[in-house]
Amino acid sequence: MPGPRTSSPATNQPVASSDIPGPGRDGHRSRGTGSAAAVLRAVLDHGPVARSFIGSATGLSPAAVSRQTADLISLGVLRELPAAACGPRAGRPSVPIDVDTDTHLACGVHIAVPMLTFGLVDLRGRTVAREELPHSGDAAELINLIARGLPRFLQRHAGRRRVLGLGVVTGGHVDGRTGTVVEHEPLGWRNLQLGPLLAARTGLPVRVDSHAHALAEAEILFGEPRARSSLVHLFVGNVVDAAIATEGVVHRGLRSAAGGVAHLPVPGARQPCPCGERGCAQASLSDRALLVKAVERGILPRPDPMLLQQAVAAGEPAAVELVRRRLGDIAKVVATLLDMLDPELLVLTELGVLFQPALLPDLFEEIVAHSRSCRDPEPVVRPSSFGADVLAVAATAAVLNSVHRSPRTLDAFSRHPVLAAGAAGVAGGAVPGRIPEAALK
Ligand SMILES: [Zn+2]
User: Fold this and answer.
1) For the chain, how far is it from start to end, CA to CA, in angstroms?
2) Do residues 144 and 109 touch, judged by C-beta distance below 8 A?
3) Do 403 and 303 have their domain in common?
4) Whether 54 contacts 43, CB under 8 Å
5) pTM (2 d.p.)
6) Stretch 310-338: mean pLDDT, rounded?
7) Which has more pLDDT, 269 or 2?
8) Do the Cβ atoms of 365 and 133 come closer than 8 Å?
9) CB 334 within 8 A of CB 367
10) Which of the two residues, 238 and 378, has the higher pLDDT score?
11) For residue 233, which of 253, 213, 247, 256 has the smallest C-alpha distance?
């Protein structure tokens, strides 16, 4: 399966992400590379832990564990903690090892309608900072906004930490191999070469990915371990999309379009869709459709997604009832996906379950009513692991995924002249990433 193609941090030449070892394709890699990823995974899952624990978790010899941990510590991926921090599950007392969250950060930009989100996320998948900005949807304006806003965002929040690269995700059909947004209906974009344009403007290595695929990558990397077995991720926002992953690998499809559920018919729905049909999932279930209803019913004065989010988060009864009813229709799509794919885990990222988890039993009840196979959805269907940070984490998933699957690539990042200059620039208060002056106009 071909992976996304993007710029190599070391050379700015295209490299395929299929060159990056993953859980399902480590066999052809050198033992050292696979071992480094296994050691990092063990520490990520269980850290802080002793070296002896890493040995038993990975099956590596004490000498190999010692060598790998020394390498990863020198790269700023792992660090040694004071002995007192070692927990009881870490085995015999020794110097505990944990993921180094102070040396590197991944930067991400999530482009939604009508907001974009800047995020900085550490190697544990924890959001260090995020900021949201409204945008008009015009592609040229948006690229200017990112090129102007990114250096300032990094200056405010990155400190002395090294920025590993820029992940960019957006909804619709995205070809990560070329960094192209093939189609984004709500923004009206077609064949927009977002990756090359942003790389030219920011000077950073840029990895563009589909929003849906990135959300699934984030769950596989940092969410519940069952996500690494088989996962369906369903996102309902202004776009409605899904992703499918097995054995820790997201299925992208021949045209990077796998998981497109925007035009799946929702039983009973009649809303007209731009595709010419009625009752498609995106036309019926999106936040846009919900906002129209909220304004029609006098729940909101205008179709502002932030107002809707605030009303749902504050538990305003009419707004909560609106999302509860929508969950009833979302449950029909969830039931279809469960019947088709029977995953170990289905993660639903949506406004209602994000801010009103008390609505989950209603969702489960409706799933049972519509699924032919799932009688107990509660253990299978979960909200996002990242709460309100979900978009920031998803935006950085492609960058962090490459590090976690092949930690030694950090060596190449550290030699990248632009990023090295960027790190020094941040420390010195200058513009990080050496973004050209012309790009800041
Ligand atoms: Zn449609």
Assistant:
1) 41
2) no
3) no
4) yes
5) 0.82
6) 97
7) 269
8) no
9) yes
10) 378
11) 213
3-state secondary structure of 3: coil
* Upstream peptide bond of 317 is cis (omega within 30 degrees of 0): no
Q: Is the domain of 265 the same as that of 336?
A: yes
Output the CA 275–ligand 1 centroid distance in Å: 4
Ligand 1 centroid – CA 119 distance (Å): 32
What does the alpha-carbon distance between residue 176 and residue 399 come to, in Å, rounded to a whole number? 12
- Give the distance (Å) from ligand 1 centre to CA of residue 183: 14
At 31, list the tokens: 């033992």
Does any domain span residue 342?
yes
Residue 340's contacts (CB-CB under 8 Å, 6 or more residues apart) are none
Strand ranges (E), 46-135:
78-80, 97-99, 104-111, 115-121, 127-134
Structural domain boundaries enclosing 82: 17-99
- 241 CA from centroid of ligand 1 (Å): 13
Other Cβ atoms less than 10 A from the Cβ of 8: the count is 16
Q: Please give the tally of structural domains in the chain.
A: 3
Instruction: Tell whether 378 and 269 lie within a shared domain.
Output: yes
d(CA 204, CA 186): 27
Between CA 122 and CA 163 the distance in angstroms is: 10
How far does the centroid of ligand 1 lie from the alpha carbon of residue 338, in Å? 21
